[in-house]
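Researcher: I'd like a candidate sequence for this fold, 369 residues long. If you have to choose between options at a position, lean toward the conservative one.
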C-alpha cells in the first residue's frame, strides 16, 4: 500500500504541518507530489515536483474536459494500491479523478468558507468532493461543524489534531519582569486579529501605564488583495499612535529563530477572528503549539478550535474582536504575574495533547483503516 501526499505547496514556513505528518505516519510507504517545492525541507520520502501547476492554461483545459491532472495521473497509474491524501479541500477536488483505492482530504482553514464565498462554483465542487471522497480530516470539533455545514456527511469526518515535536523545543518557565515582552507571531492576514492586539497593547501602555514591548515575527506572505489592504491598516494605526517605538520587527523566521525570540518574551498574543471575506483559522494556528511548548502563555480568542489549545487555565481566552477583554488579560498578566504559572501549564497542555508522538499513530490509524 502506498500513501501519496498531494499538495500544491511544500514550503517550510507555511506548510510545515504537512511535513510533520509525513514524518510521523507509520505502517505505509509514502510519497509526495507537489506543485511548488522548497529545498529547505529534508526530503523524508520520495518527492515529485510538478513542472506545471493548476494555474497553467494546459491544466485549466484538462479540468474543463474532466481529465485528471497529468502529473499526478502518471504517478497514480503506476500504482495499484494507492491511498491519496489531498492537503486542502481545493486539491482534494482536483484529485478526485485520479485512480486510487481510497481518497482522503484534509482541510486546513482558508479552504473552508473563504473559498466558497470567493467563488460560488466551489459549493458544487465541494458537494461532488463530499459525495465521492472516502474520508475527511479536520483539526477539531469546530472545524468538523464547519465542514458538516458545507454539506459533508459527519460519518466521513475524522478529527485529528495537528501537533508539534515537543521534545525538540526547550521549555523555560517565565519569571517576573518589569517590562512585559509580548510576542506577535503570524502572517499579516485579517483572520490573525493583529489590529485588535495592537489596539489592546496601545491602550494598556497609554491608559494603564503598563510597560510593554512587542516582538513581532512575520509579515505579509501573499499578494492576495485583502492581505495588502490589511497590511496598510496596521501601518496606519502604528503611525497614528506612535506605537513604532514599542515594536521590534523580525520578519519571517525559521522555527529555531522564532524560538530564540520567544524565549525573550513573557506572553504571546494571537487574537484570531473571522475575516470579512470568510477567512478563518479553521482549526487553530499551529504556531501556538510551538510557543506554548516553550513555556510561553498565549492571549487568544474563542475563534474556531483555538479553545482546544488555549484555555483560561494555561492562557487567556477572550471573545473575538474584544479589545477590552484583551486589555484585561494584559493587565492580569502584568499586575498579578499570572503568566508565570500559566507558563508551566502551557507546556503541559502541549505535552499531553499535541505531541506528534501521540498524534502520529492516530493519524496513521485513520488513514489505514
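Model: Candidate sequence:
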Amino acid at each position: 500500500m502506498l500513501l501519496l501526499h498531494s499538495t500544491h505547496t511544500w514550503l517550510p514556513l507555511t506548510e510545515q504541518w504537512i511535513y510533520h505528518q509525513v514524518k510521523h505516519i507509520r505502517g505505509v510507504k509514502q510519497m509526495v507530489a507537489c506543485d511548488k517545492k522548497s529545498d529547505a525541507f529534508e526530503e523524508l520520502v520520495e518527492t515529485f515536483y510538478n513542472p506545471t501547476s493548476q494555474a497553467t492554461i494546459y491544466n485549466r483545459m484538462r479540468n474543463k474536459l474532466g481529465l485528471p491532472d497529468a502529473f499526478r495521473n502518471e504517478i497514480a497509474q503506476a500504482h495499484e494500491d494507492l491511498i491519496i491524501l489531498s492537503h486542502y479541500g481545493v486539491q482534494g477536488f482536483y484529485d478526485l479523478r485520479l485512480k486510487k483505492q481510497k481518497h482522503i482530504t484534509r482541510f486546513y482553514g482558508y479552504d473552508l468558507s473563504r473559498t466558497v464565498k470567493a467563488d460560488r462554483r466551489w459549493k458544487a465542487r465541494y458537494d461532488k468532493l463530499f459525495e465521492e471522497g472516502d474520508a475527511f480530516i479536520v483539526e477539531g470539533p469546530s472545524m468538523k461543524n464547519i465542514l458538516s455545514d458545507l454539506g459533508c456527511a459527519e460519518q466521513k469526518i475524522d478529527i485529528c489534531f495537528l501537533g508539534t515535536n515537543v521534545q525538540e523545543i526547550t521549555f523555560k518557565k517565565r519569571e517576573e519582569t518589569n517590562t512585559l515582552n509580548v510576542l506577535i507571531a503570524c502572517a499579516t492576514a485579517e483572520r490573525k486579529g493583529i489590529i485588535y492586539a495592537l489596539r489592546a497593547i496601545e491602550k494598556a501602555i497609554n491608559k494603564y501605564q503598563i510597560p510593554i514591548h512587542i516582538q513581532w515575527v512575520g509579515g505579509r506572505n501573499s499578494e492576495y488583495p485583502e492581505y495588502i489592504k490589511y497590511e496598510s491598516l496596521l501601518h496606519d494605526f502604528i503611525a497614528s499612535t506612535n506605537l513604532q517605538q514599542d515594536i521590534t520587527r523580525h520578519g519571517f523566521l525559521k522555527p529555531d529563530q522564532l524560538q530564540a525570540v520567544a524565549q525573550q518574551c513573557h506572553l504571546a498574543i494571537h487574537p484570531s477572528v473571522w475575516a470579512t471575506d470568510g477567512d478563518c483559522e479553521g482549526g487553530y494556528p499551529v504556531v501556538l503549539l510551538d510557543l506554548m511548548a516553550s513555556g510561553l502563555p498565549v492571549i487568544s480568542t474563542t475563534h474556531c478550535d483555538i479553545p482546544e489549545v488555549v484555555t483560561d487555565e494555561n492562557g487567556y481566552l477572550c471573545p473575538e474582536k474584544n479589545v477590552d477583554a484583551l486589555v484585561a488579560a494584559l493587565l492580569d498578566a502584568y499586575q498579578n504575574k499570572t503568566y508565570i504559572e500559566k507558563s508551566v501549564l502551557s507546556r503541559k497542555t502541549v505535552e499531553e495533547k499535541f505531541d506528534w508522538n501521540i498524534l502520529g499513530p492516530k493519524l496513521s490509524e485513520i488513514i489505514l483503516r
